[in-house]
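Researcher: Structure prediction, please.
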Amino acid sequence: MTLGEWRGRMIQVWDLGMMGQHAAAPQDEVEKDNLLVKYVGRVGNRWAADAYEASKGAEDQLYAMRLSKSREMTIIAEKEGNVGSFINHSCQPNARAERWTEQGRQRIGIFANGKIKAKSKVTINYGLVGGVGMKC
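Model: Predicted structure follows.
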């Protein structure tokens, strides 16, 4: 899917009250490998990511995604993010995060693992959060 085709699509955020918010697929079905959303935010280095994580309490949500295992670049989406920051974790995710370069800049996109039904919850496997593995 090209960026031009993607611009017309947008995942939605649903508020589930006490269960929080989550991202859902658009009104129409999404095909395998289609781009759902670009994960956007402020790009920081490992020190900015460490400072962000240290500023949060144990019960606070983290809205950040690493561009590399070394944490050299992290996208912090808390204030400058979009609906991509509402994608929740699942051990059987229907989407995945992929890194690529676009016009010389590192990007993260959320892509469908398979066909996703309209209005279905969109999930990814977080892998590591704050250096702690998510157990499945």
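Model: Helices lie at 3-6, 46-54.
Researcher: Thanks, that helps.
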